[in-house]
Amino acid sequence: MSKKTHSTVDNLQVLFEDNHLIIINKRPGDIVQGDKTGDQPLSDTVKAYLKIKYNKPGNVYLGVVHRLDRPTSGIVVFAKTSKALPRLNKMFAEKDAKKTYWAIVKNNPKEPEKRLVHWMKRNTKQNKSYANNKEVPDSKKAMLTYRTIKKLNHYFLLQIDLETGRHHQIRSQLSAIGSPIKGDLKYGFNRSNDDGSIHLHARKLRLTHPVKKKPLEIIAPPPNDPIWNACL
Q1: Averaged confidence pLDDT in the chain
Q2: On the CB side of 162, how many CA atoms lie within 13 Å of its CA?
Q3: 80-97 pLDDT, tens per residue?
Q4: Helix H segments across the chain?
Q5: What backbone torsions phi and psi does residue 111 show, to the nearest 5 degrees?
Q6: What is the value of pTM for the model shown?
Q7: Contacts of 144 (CB under 8 A, 6+ apart)
Q8: Cα-flanking dihedrals φ and ψ of residue 42, to 5°?
Q9: Residues 6+ away with beta carbon under 8 Å from 62
C-alpha cells in the first residue's frame, strides 16, 4: 500500500450503533476532526453516512467524544444525541471508559509486563511529547501498563492498558523504554510504513452506555496487513 487509506461513506466500518451513539473502526489515514490539512474528517464522513442511511433532511447531529492520532487505527466513539455527548465526555474525562491498545514493536521490552509512569511534556511546535522519568515544569503524569502478548517473526505484539490520556502517550512512553512503535519515525522507529500509518491500534473499549446504563464492550479488528493479520 503506497497511499493512505481513508474511510468513506461506502467503506465505513461501524462497530456499534444505536439511537445515542455510533462507534467506528478508524482507518490509519483518517483524521477524527478537521485540521489545517483541510482533509475531510471522519466526523463529516460519519455525518454523511447517517444522512444517507436514515434519509435525513437538513443537518445531522454528531458529537466528537475523543480523538485518535491520525496514523493510528481503531475505536472512535461519536455521540448521536445532545443527551449522550456530555455523559460520554464525562466518562472519558473521568477515565470510566477503559481503553486497550495493541502496538507492534521491534525491540521487545526488557520486562514482559510493567506499569510505566512518566511525566509528559508536550512541545506544540514539534507536535511531539517527551516522556521524563521525573516531574519537570509544565509536565503531566502519564501511566499505562503494557504486556508482551505475542512474538511474531521480526516483531512483538504488546497489549497496552491506558490509565491516562496524554498527547502521544503510548508512542512516547514506549519510545522512552527503547521500544518505538513500527512505522513511528517521530518517536524513533528507523523507517516509516508505506501508507504513513503506525502499528498502533485502539483494540478494545469498555464503557457504560450513556443512556441505557448497560455495560458495553467493543473490539475492533486491526487493519488488514500481513503483520496485523499474524496477530490474530
Answers
A1: 96
A2: 29
A3: 999 999 999 999 999 999
A4: 42-53, 84-93, 169-176, 226-231
A5: -105, 135
A6: 0.96
A7: 115, 116, 160, 161, 162, 163, 164, 169, 170, 173
A8: -60, -35
A9: 22, 43, 46, 47, 50, 78, 79, 80
Comparing 33-37, 57-61, 102-106, 175-179, the range with the smallest average pLDDT is: 33-37
Q: Position of cell 454528531?
A: 62
- C-alpha 9/C-alpha 33 separation (Å) is 16
Report residue 2's pLDDT band, with 50, 70 and 90 as the boundaries: very low
Of 145, 143, 147, give the one whose Cα is nearest residue 113.
Answer: 147
Q: Measuring CA to CA, how many Å separate 28 from each of 3, 74, 124, 186, 199? A: 11, 8, 22, 16, 9
Catalytic residue among 35, 44, 69, 194: 69
Q: Could you confirm whether 161 is annotated as catalytic?
A: no
d(CA 91, CA 221) in angstroms, rounded, equals: 24
Contact 6, 42 (CB under 8 A): no
| Residue given cell 514506549 in the structure block | 174
